[in-house]
């Protein structure tokens, strides 16, 4: 399951769960890029539910779309990741250290209000 919802001029809410194959990855990336059009200095709320590693085909699709993904990421300043699995929270924050201009902060599944408040803070 992958769902993207645009919330205003500068926000995307993304919910992901399960396993992505190549077709699902292609559709997810298309949706992310389309929904982010026109966003500048945006914020994302990313909810990860029941995560499974994507298939090799899905990873291949993601790698082939890296230029578009870099443009997508460049539209955002902040991302809050809500996940139940500790390793996903840690990996998300590590990713934030590796992507210039994007700050990522992870929260537990019961910290939705904290995630929302952090997204609203001035950078």
From TrEMBL:
Top-rank taxon, per record: Bacteria
SUPFAM superfamilies membership: SpoIIaa-like
Name of the protein this chain belongs to: STAS/SEC14 domain-containing protein
């Amino acid at each position: 399951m992958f769902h993207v919802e645009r919330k205003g001029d500068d926000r995307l809410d993304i919910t992901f769960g399960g396993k992505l194959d190549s077709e699902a990855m292609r559709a997810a990336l298309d949706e992310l890029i389309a929904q982010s059009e026109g966003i500048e200095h945006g914020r994302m709320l990313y909810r990860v539910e029941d995560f499974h590693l994507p298939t090799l085909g899905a990873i291949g699709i993601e790698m082939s779309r890296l230029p578009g993904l870099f443009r997508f990421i460049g539209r955002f300043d902040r991302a809050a990741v809500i996940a139940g699995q500790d390793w996903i929270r840690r990996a998300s924050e590590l990713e934030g250290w590796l992507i210039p201009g994007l700050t990522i902060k992870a929260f537990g599944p019961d910290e939705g209000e904290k995630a929302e408040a952090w997204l609203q803070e001035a950078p």
